[in-house]
Design goal:
The protein is mainly alpha-helical. It is built from 16 helices and no strands. The longest helix is centred in the middle third of the chain and has 30 residues. It starts with 28 loop residues before the first helix and ends with a helix.
Length: 331
């Protein structure tokens, strides 16, 4: 049976109904979620945990087990219970009504640029996910979510392959940042599915699964083209912005720490304690490396303009060995 209009979910009607899993989230719980808190119920006997179908979402389920007092409470909310149970979500309802709403919202989140306004109702999407979990559609919803994001990442990968070398690094940085930013919204919206299906039945975590998708469908396919370009950019100061280089290197380390072995010196500039500790016998070599870097900067137009800058440069040369040793953890 197709459910009533979702307009009630914005603030009244069903969204304010208390039941065993809702905990009156419509009265403020979801607002707390968007502020960074995670107002989950204290691990109730959720619908996906005990295979009890709708019983895990019925307000009277626990009341019936609580004796006469619970029975009275169940009678008092029987009208709300009946309304909730009458709106059974069939698989056809899920495919025709609920998943299209989720699909559209995910599309917008995956393609938004930083600072963009996304015209979607987060509360409505959260409610869609909750109801589908209550009515045993978690497995289908998880499958649809993974398929949706996988298709998106495959398109991203193809676009990167078509990028010219001079734009490749910047476009990879945009793709990585855009995806990680989208996860900050997608993961909280599917928090009930994560708690009552992914963590409970699959023994995994939604965020970890989605990060793994980017690693497999984008990063792994481009790492051997990306790394030589990063090393070349490193040897040419300011070919790309330091923030772009830092974002990519830190991102690659998050996706797969063992990629450090491909370019330890590069990763060590942004990730602490990558290189072995410095030893006193190599201090002169570190100082020589600093002087070489200064000569390269001068050759690329970064000259000392006045006497104060000259003195600062001389002081940097004099202290270069200690600065380099400090970056390697030397004490």
């Amino acid at each position: 049976m197709e459910e009533e209009s979702m307009e009630e979910e914005g603030g009244g009607g069903e969204a304010m109904m208390d039941d065993q899993n809702h905990n009156n989230w419509g009265a403020g719980g979801y607002g707390q979620l968007l502020l960074g808190e995670r107002p989950l119920p204290a691990r109730p006997a959720g619908p996906e945990q005990n295979g009890a179908g709708l019983r895990g979402c019925e307000p009277g389920a626990a009341a019936g087990r609580a004796g006469p007092t619970g029975a009275i409470a169940a009678i008092n909310i029987s009208a709300s219970t009946s309304k909730f149970l009458m709106n059974v979500i069939t698989i056809e309802d899920y495919k025709s009504t609920y998943w299209p709403k989720l699909d559209s919202a995910i599309d917008q989140l995956l393609t938004q640029s930083p600072g963009d306004y996304i015209p979607i109702s987060y509360e409505q999407i959260y409610s869609c996910v909750y109801k589908c979990v209550c009515q045993q559609h978690s497995e289908q919803m998880y499958s649809d979510l993974i398929k949706k994001i996988t298709n998106h990442l495959e398109r991203v990968s193809k676009e990167l392959q078509a990028s010219p070398p001079d734009l490749y690094i910047e476009r990879f940085n945009v793709a990585l940042g855009q995806y990680m930013g989208a996860l900050q919204s997608i993961v909280p919206l599917f928090i009930y599915m994560n708690k009552f299906y992914i963590e409970t039945k699959l023994n995994r975590d939604l965020k970890d699964d989605l990060i793994k998708l980017f690693t497999e469908h984008v990063a792994e396919k481009h790492i051997y083209n990306l790394m030589p370009l990063l090393l070349e950019a490193q040897s040419t100061p300011f070919q790309i912005t330091p923030s772009t280089m830092a974002n990519i290197v830190k991102g690659l380390y998050t996706l797969r720490p063992e990629w450090v072995q491909m370019a330890p010196a590069l990763f060590s500039k942004f990730i602490p304690n990558i290189l072995p500790p410095a030893v006193e016998s190599e201090l002169q070599e570190y100082a020589a490396q600093d002087q070489k870097l200064q000569r390269e900067l001068i050759q690329n137009g970064f000259t000392r303009g006045d006497q104060s800058r000259k003195r600062a440069g001389e002081e940097l040369t004099y202290n270069g060995s200690s600065a380099c040793a400090s970056s390697r953890g030397y004490r």
